[in-house]
Specification:
mainly alpha, two-stranded antiparallel sheet
């Protein structure tokens, strides 16, 4: 009997795996339709289908795991949680339908918050507030359009000035990642990436690009981000003064054994905290550089000093580097590329002098692995993986498992991939994925920089996105970060300023609205 059941169990398991793989691909295709569809009804239908499919895929993949044991044992609790969630979605959808610009402010508030969910002895940090905002926004967008009479006002709402090349590249990236999950050695990782990041953030991108962005809305969004950043820095000050962190056992342990103390505020990771602060600081720096109002300049300078103090306490080298890259972009946009290059060259020369005069203070006398806290080893391992399968890679999400197999180690640091996004992409997705990544970055930066000298909002977004890209070269999380999608969406939605605007004072309205 047992021998007879074995093939049947294997067949059922295989069918389940195929269904999950197919579900991931279908979810990615729905996200592509959301990004590319010219019909509002088609986009709306794809949004609703994605909202239904992704939770089904998630529950199916973890139903038998300890994470859902509490819900399996208490069905009434599960029903109550589902009911509360649906009620919150209904309220949010109604609010966004009545005031579409409220979606932007709600997304800005929810963007940084990751809620630790502990179940079955494991903790996952999920962007639950942002997922609720996205789902409510999708409902507010889709339901009225599906209820409308077919054929009436069913054209794409994207502005006429906007190129669709960026959307095509984003859609291709999402679909390729899902397709390469089919041969990944870590399918569960790939599935979580698709349903937690790629699909919901594609919906967020589509929603944000169809909001009417005005200087007042941009200013209010900046105010929300600044208030959040100041609050986070205040919490960081408290952590530093008390020498206690709210969470992240890895950072807590590191602080106990090192001579320095890093803070992460309400973020789980000091580097992600630093990335957020750098983004807000670049937006304020853009207002400071372009505005001629004394009150605006003083307010920006004081706030920047406070945020800089908070950033210093993260000791995030990747965030410092990203901030400098963003400031270089702002300098090039404000005073010209040549002047910015001279300043950057002067800083580089000063850095070289410091290295030659006191190599011990910057760690030159240490090994590369010591200076980079073990990341150089991960980078080298990632390059080896990429060379082994240069065309197709090891499959989406497979870096951690393949790195541990290759290096014969269980080093937990591999869980964050190679800490260099192009290398992670090359190892997991091969030349095809790497080419798509490079095309996306080039097209995105090119589109954001266009017209940015005459628009303070576009300048801020361009600098912030370049900083984020630089940060991913030294850390991780590119399209897995909602901040990347939000910056791309805002940059795509903002209309480039006309050439004659260069002679005017760019951003006066935004500066006034922001303060």
């Amino acid at each position: 009997m047992d021998a007879a059941r074995t093939p049947m169990i294997a067949a059922v398991s295989t069918l389940g795996d195929l269904a999950q793989t197919g579900g991931v691909v279908v979810a990615a295709l729905l996200a592509a339709v959301v990004l590319l569809a010219r019909s509002d009804r088609a986009r709306s239908a794809a949004m609703l289908a994605a909202l239904v499919l992704t939770p089904v895929l998630l529950v199916a993949s973890i139903w038998s795991t300890p994470q859902l044991q509490a819900l399996r044992d208490r069905p009434l609790l599960a029903l109550g949680a589902a009911g509360a969630g649906l009620l919150a979605l209904a309220v949010g959808a109604y609010a966004f339908h009545r005031a579409p610009q409220l979606l932007v402010l709600a997304a800005a508030v929810a963007l940084p918050f990751r809620v630790p969910i502990e179940s079955g002895g494991e903790t996952a940090n999920l962007l639950l507030p942002l997922y609720l905002v996205i789902a409510a926004g999708a409902l507010a967008y889709a339901i009225p359009r599906l209820r409308a009479v077919p054929g009436l006002d069913d054209d794409d709402e994207q502005p006429a000035h906007r190129s669709r090349l960026l959307e095509w590249l984003l859609a291709a990236t999402v679909v390729l990642y899902a397709a390469q999950a089919a041969y990944s050695s870590d399918f569960d990782k790939a599935l979580s990436q698709v349903i937690f990041f790629y699909v919901p953030f594609a919906l967020l991108f589509a929603l944000l690009t169809r909001v009417e962005w005005t200087p007042r809305l941009a200013g209010r969004t900046l105010v929300v981000l600044v208030v959040l950043a100041v609050a986070f820095v205040g919490i960081g000050f408290v952590e530093f003064a008390r020498r206690e962190l709210l969470w992240n056992p890895k950072v807590i342990s590191s602080n106990q054994f090192e001579s320095y103390f890093r803070v992460n505020s309400l973020f789980f990771d000091p580097n992600i905290y630093g990335r957020f602060l750098a983004t807000v600081m670049l937006s304020l720096a853009a207002v400071l550089l372009w505005s001629r109002r004394a009150l605006v300049a003083v307010g920006c300078a004081v706030t920047l000093a406070l945020l800089w103090a908070g950033l210093v306490m993260t000791l995030s080298q990747s965030s410092f580097t990203a901030l400098l890259a963003g400031l270089a972009v702002l300098g090039a946009l404000r005073w010209g590329a040549k002047r910015a290059a001279l300043v950057v060259g002067a800083f580089a020369l000063a850095g070289a002098v410091v290295v030659l005069a006191a190599p011990g203070t910057v760690g030159v006398d240490q090994s590369a692995d010591q200076v980079t806290s073990g990341r150089s080893t991960l980078v080298a391992g990632g390059l080896d993986l990429a060379r082994e399968r240069p065309l197709t890679g090891w499959g989406a999400g497979a870096f951690r498992r393949e790195y541990r197999r290759q290096e014969k180690t269980s080093d937990a640091r591999a869980s964050a991939a190679s800490h260099t996004i192009p290398i992670t992409v090359a190892a997991e997705q091969g030349i095809v994925g790497l080419a798509l990544y490079l095309a996306l970055v080039i097209v995105a930066i090119g589109g954001l920089v266009r017209g940015a000298r005459a628009s303070i909002a576009r300048a801020a977004v361009a600098a912030a996105f370049v900083a984020l890209v630089v940060h991913t070269l030294l850390y991780a999380a590119f399209l897995e970060d909602p901040l990347a999608w939000a910056l791309l969406a805002v940059g795509a939605a903002l209309r480039p300023a006309p050439p004659e605007a260069h002679a005017q004072e760019p951003g006066a309205e935004l500066a006034t609205a922001a303060l």
